[in-house]
Amino acid sequence: MSKLLRVVQVTDCHLQEAPDKVFKGCLPEERLCKVLEDMVGRNLQPDLLLLTGDLVHHGYPQGYQRLAEHVQKVATEIRWLPGNHDDARHMSVFSELNLLQWRKHDWCVVSLDSTSSPDGKGSGSLGECELQRLEAILQAPPSKYLLIALHHPPVHVGSPWQDAICLGDKDAFWRILEDSKSSAAKLIVCGHLHQDHEVYNLPLPLLVTPATAPQFKKAMLQPVLETDEYLSLPGYRVIDLFESGEFSTQVVRVVI
C-alpha cells in the first residue's frame, strides 16, 4: 500500500490556567510538551496534527494561546475541535485551527462539535445542526475518503461511569452513517475516555486515543486514575492514510 498522508492525533491535554498548576497529581503542560518533543524526535512529520478536545481545562483563554504556540512549533497543518471542558468562544479566536474540514489528496478530515446539550457531568451531543451537516457531507463527500473526528465516543466501552457520558445522540449518529450507505467514510477518531480503544465491530472502525493528561482505568464503576506504569503514560496516535482508503494506526506512549 502507498501511504498518502499521516495524521497525528493528540487529545485531552487539560492545560491549566498556568503551566505550573497541578491537575490530578501531574503537570499537564509538561506532559503535552513531552509528547510534542517525542513526535519531533521520531521525525513523524505529520501532514495534519489533529487535536480532539478537552484541550484546556475550564477553557482559560491563555491556555489556548499557549497551546497554539506549542503545537505550531511541531506542525504546519493543525486542526482542533472542542470537548466538554473547552470554551469554543476562546478557541474560535484561532480561526485557522478552527476550520471544520481539512483536505489533501484523496482524504478529508471532518471535525464535528459534540459539545451540544451538555449535562454538566461530561456528556455532550452533536445536536441537530451538526447531525444535518454530517448527513450533507455523507451525501456529497468533499473527497474520495473521509476521516470523521469528534470528542465524545459514540459507543459504550464497558465502564459504567464513562458510558453515561459518551455521545448523547450516538444512535442518531450511527443511523445517519448507516442510512447514507456512504463508501467514503472510512474511520472515526475521538478522545474523552483517557484510554486507548480500537473497535472494529461497528459500521466504521472507531479509534479512541489516550490523553496527554492522566489516564483512567478501564471497566470501572467510578473514575479511578490509571496506576499501571505503562498505561499511565501520556499518549498520542499516529494514523497513516493510504490511497486505497485503508489506514494503519499506532498508539505511542511517552516516558516522562
From TrEMBL:
Keywords: Hydrolase, Iron, Metal-binding. It comes from the Bacteria. It holds the Pfam family Metallophos. Signal peptide: none annotated. GO terms for molecular function: hydrolase activity; metal ion binding. The keyword Iron applies. Coiled coil: none annotated. InterPro entries: Calcineurin-like_PHP (IPR004843), CNP_phosphodiesterase-III (IPR050884), Metallo-depent_PP-like (IPR029052). Residues 5-195 form the Calcineurin-like phosphoesterase domain. Belongs to the cyclic nucleotide phosphodiesterase class-III family. This is Calcineurin-like phosphoesterase domain-containing protein. The lineage of its organism: Bacteria, Pseudomonadati, Pseudomonadota, Gammaproteobacteria, Oceanospirillales.
